[in-house]
Amino acid sequence: MNIAVQKTLSLLLLLVIGFLLRKKLKDPAQQKGLKTLILTVALPAIIFVALLKAEVEWDLLALPLLALSFNFILYFILKYTLPLFGIEKDTSQYRTYLLLFPSLAPGLSCFPFLIEYLGDDALAWGALADIGNKVFVLVIAYMIAMSWYFKLNKDIKSGNGDKIKSLLLSLVNEPINLVIILALILISLGIHLENLPVFVSTAISTLSNLMTPLVLIFIGIAVVFNWKQIRKIAGLLMVRSGLTFLLSGMVLIFAPQLSYPAILVLVVFPQSAISFWPFAHMASITALEQENEKKTTKTFDMELAVNILACSLPFTTVIMLTVFSFGELFTSPTTLLAVGFALVGLGIIKPILKWFNLIEYKPALEKETHSS
To answer: Residue 162 above 60 pLDDT?
Structure first.
């Protein structure tokens, strides 16, 4: 059996184990604790090990700019295409989709697969790229959300400078970012993993080994099989994924000299699940609206936001496993463009059918109106 297929089956087994543990860990507080352990211990440890083991070239610091550019490109594409899918512009649903969909959460959805299939160098590249994505989800997404809130509620005075400062501080103080900064400082001084005391390197490496099983078990526990929600959101998740494959394919056309691991990082990193941070900004703004005594316009649809997050992680997991199981196939720009167009096509079938039905229904309605 193909080694990639065997690895995929072993990862799927961990997902199944997580699914079987749902009843044992159904308390949201327990799930939150598991997620905290992943994001503050296992993930920083594995990124630290990957950076210190990898040969990081300083020109790779352009990766955060590429990731930030991807966030903006997807944001502006969706800004003008969401109405084509029946999502009316300037509604709470429109703003919810637009803020969530350009964001990425590679820590839970991409990094475990990078380390398992491609190794330390690929994970180091992904970790560096995530710095740009963090700027978008922590700072820029918050500023966009607040601008919408004040636009809808012009009588409310802004007093959120402290909030922006706290978000900038959280960008610096987040364990993952601290680890990246520390690792880059050590690398610049010529210190790598083998130069650290053995007890330190062994402890960190042991913690890093927790990453993949914890993440996959967490996905198995947290996945929600609500078919009504999935049908509602799956179309747009397909479009998001399809657009991302198209963008990756176009970049690859202009950079055919990239290595196999670099190409797969280029393909899978933007396919990461939707980030929780924009949802946190939405919750903050919803709390402001509830505290305000005057009647305020609803900025976001929180129920829709929860449903999107619930569907995004399992959807992304399927994409990641598919790409890595057929790795060589997804290094071709032709394949990426074909898959991208196919996913966009699947995502727009329902809106197109609705549009044709509306065209057929309109003349019949006009005829009926005239006859009466």
So the answer is: no
pLDDT of residue 240: 92
Measured over the CA atoms of residue 81, residue 83, residue 89 and residue 95, the dihedral's sign is negative
Please give the single-letter amino acid code of residue 97. Y
Are 74 and 102 within 8 A, CB to CB? yes
* 152 Cα distance to chain centroid: 28
CB hemisphere CA count around 8 (13 angstroms)? 16
Burial 287-316 (b: 16+ CB within 10 A, else e): ebbeeeeeebeebbbbebbebbbbbbbbbb
Q: Which of 257, 241, 240 is nearest to 331 (CA)?
A: 257
Identify which of 47, 24, 2, 78 has the alpha carbon closest to the alpha carbon of residue 217.
24
For 259-275, what is each residue's pLDDT tens digit?
899 999 999 999 998 98
Report the distance separating Cα 291 and Cα 285, nearest Å.
10
Nearest to 98 by CA among 114, 110, 80: 80
User: pLDDT higher for 362 or 342?
Assistant: 342
Mean per-residue pLDDT, 305-318: 82
pTM (two decimals): 0.73
